[in-house]
Write a structure and sequence with these properties.
Length: about 100
């Protein structure tokens, strides 16, 4: 039972570290965009077809998602490197 509790605590600790790294990476981004809803385009395409191009909205959102995926992969890689070096993320010292 203690083994399972330790595994859960390790998992939560790693998840917390990943979130901290990801937030730090996001904070470093100068031009991080948010996705467009595009809901209006699909609810009433006749009125919005002149102003909005739904394919461009989808392409833009896909590009943004790829950027976020890249940030998540970078956070995972950095966490693995920190773990392999046995760094404490809170103070940057060897443990």
């Amino acid at each position: 039972m203690n083994l399972k509790k330790n595994e859960t605590e390790e998992h939560l600790g790693r998840r917390s570290r990943l979130h901290e790294i990801l937030i730090a990476l996001i904070n470093q981004q100068k031009d991080l965009e948010l996705m467009d809803e595009g809901i209006e385009v699909f609810q009433n395409p006749i009125n919005y077809s002149e102003k909005y191009d739904s394919s461009k909205i989808i392409e833009r959102n896909q590009r943004i998602i790829k950027k976020y995926q890249s940030l998540v992969r970078s956070a995972i890689a950095l966490d693995a490197l920190l773990e392999s070096e046995q760094y404490e993320i809170s103070d940057g010292r060897f443990s």
